[in-house]
């Protein structure tokens, strides 16, 4: 979005011009997607046993059962707080009887990866997240 300098001739005209400029900017901001709001929280004890196992492995630094574990999570859905690319990493939570990686993940952010600042659990493949409380 370009910066526009408005020098009104009178206050009423200036308010009108600023109002029109803001109205034009709103669709562009909405196209980026919703800004994250406070996420629901879940205690570690409330998570499935497979998620607790994955969480412990994250803090140990592995070994992880899937090649994709520990790779950068892009936060394209913009559901997690905004940080530079590379801040978040994703880890698979095993799903019993699943033939593939399933939909459950833990996404953690911070450096180093073995001491993340925050971790989030999703059971629906990034459609929703809950912040994990240790």
TrEMBL record:
**Short name of any one Pfam family annotated for the protein:** Ribonuclease
Specify the signal sequence span: 1-23
Give the record's keywords alphabetically. Hydrolase, Nuclease, Signal
| CDD domains found in the cross-reference section | RNase_Sa
Nuclease as a keyword of this entry, yes or no, is: yes
**Organism listed in the record:** Comamonas jiangduensis
Q: What is the lineage of its organism?
A: Bacteria, Pseudomonadati, Pseudomonadota, Betaproteobacteria, Burkholderiales
Q: What is this protein called?
A: Ribonuclease domain-containing protein
- Which InterPro entries does this UniProt record tie to the protein? N1-like, Ribonuclease/ribotoxin
């Amino acid at each position: 979005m370009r910066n526009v300098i408005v020098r009104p001739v009178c206050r009423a005209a200036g308010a009108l011009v600023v109002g029109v400029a803001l109205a034009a900017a709103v669709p562009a901001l909405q196209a980026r997607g919703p800004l994250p709001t406070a996420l629901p929280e879940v205690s570690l004890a409330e998570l499935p046993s497979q998620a607790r196992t994955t969480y412990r492995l994250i803090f140990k630094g592995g070994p992880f059962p899937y090649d994709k574990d520990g790779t950068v999570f892009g936060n394209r859905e913009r559901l997690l707080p905004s940080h530079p690319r590379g801040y978040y990493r994703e880890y698979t939570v095993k799903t019993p009887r699943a033939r593939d990686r399933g939909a459950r993940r833990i996404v953690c952010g911070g450096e180093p990866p073995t001491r993340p600042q925050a971790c989030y659990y999703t059971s629906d493949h990034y459609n929703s997240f809950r912040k994990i409380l240790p």
